[in-house]
Amino acid sequence: MTPYEALESHFKKIADLKHISSIMSWDESAMMPSGGGPARQRAMGTLSAQIHDLATTGDIAMWLEGCAGLNLTPWQQANVGAIQRDYNRAQCLSSAFVREQTEAVMASEQQWRICRAKNDWPSMLPALKKVVELTRTESKLRADNTGLSPYDAMLDLYEPGMRSARLDKLFAPIKARLPSLIDQIIKHQETRPLLPLGDDFEIDAQRSLGLNVMRVMGFDFDHGRLDTSHHPFCGGVPEDVRLTTRYDRKDFLTSLFAVIHETGHAMYEQGRPKQWLSQPVSEALSMGTHESQSLLMEMQACRSRDFINFSAPMMAKAFGRPTHDPAWSAENLHHHVTQVKRGLIRVDADEATYPLHVILRYELEKGLLENEFEVEDLPTAWNEKMNQYLGLSTTGDYNNGVLQDVHWPAGLIGYFPTYTLGAMMAAQLFSSAKKTIPELSAQLQCGDFSALVSWLRKHVHRLGRSVGADELLKQATGEVLTPDAFLAHLQQRYLP
Predict the structure, then answer these.
(1) Which helix (H) or strand (E) holds 100?
(2) Which of 24, 58, 106, 232 could bridge across to 41 with cysteines, CB 3.0–4.6 Å?
């Protein structure tokens, strides 16, 4: 067995254990009874430590060194590069620390579900403080290992190669432009009628509608399923993708577009290079890339007037509404799904206000990680930025403020910026796809996603980690990431 063959064999074992971990994480969020929490924390702690031990064994360094003289294919070389990167970054953490962090995070997530439902910030503090302290420790260890700042060391986990200095430059035009643009859009939308859709939509009908739209988009139900959870997410593995949503009887559109969003994630997973699924090179390139696939489907394709022309009759039929009812016309439904308004909740935000929600969290989590303030200070800091960016107050409203997201209780500090990176990337990719597929508009009006999905398979999904994010975008669109396509999209859609 060559050193490269030894690497592949070793990482197949790791992939199998990660498969188990991913399904168990989905189960914890979607199916596990509340009383199962402590036992699941221990089990996942043991499993994560075992995976870490395998991912950091000294044999990997020996095999990597042995690969230097081998005649490898381009994909094999890319796989070696992915393994080398992951190995270098994992070395700074002990398995004991990984176990402790895993257990703390799971306990914190479970506490978050309870506290958010009760608007109870004080009871969340102990668990969150422990997670943040562990994340600060991790960030320092990673900073020492990589030579990056603590925050950049964490950001690099989710968006390899991205740095906060570049983030600030990418976000600056968006941060400068959006407040006035939002004012313009809201003023413009006040001139058009918005007919109400009602306020009682059966959950079973909502679920059926979501499943039908997933089928239209091309989701493979032989290798995935839709369930319910406190927070919509996509988990599992490419061969068994698990996505979730949540339902509100008063608002079916929120759930429907959460399903569409998560289906975008799921289809990226289902499109990863099948012959390499057991190897690191097959994994998603970055979380920004992942978010680009969900946002391209949700925001660019499915909130377009083209797709609403197709889906309006589906929506009306799902809830037994007459298609001739003006409220259920494509025009009125399109007004609903493109309505811009300042709101407190990130996941319910429209695409114009959403980046401000992300920038708020980016600035807070960066300050938190770099010890500019403490966990106790978060509600006040949150309220100040919410007032500054969106003119809203969250004083005493923890449920709709600092408790609304699972990310910090889950230790995912450095993740938030990828949402807006993904939005920018989605706009850039979709603009290029429209140029490459002139008939795309007509296809979406017929509910035909085949050409769009094929284009994404070729330019994103099947590349895995074989190229970097800048290279992927340059190949697909002709340039590296910029905010230009995103801002142009907002201008064109909302102020035509």
Answers:
(1) helix 95-118
(2) 106
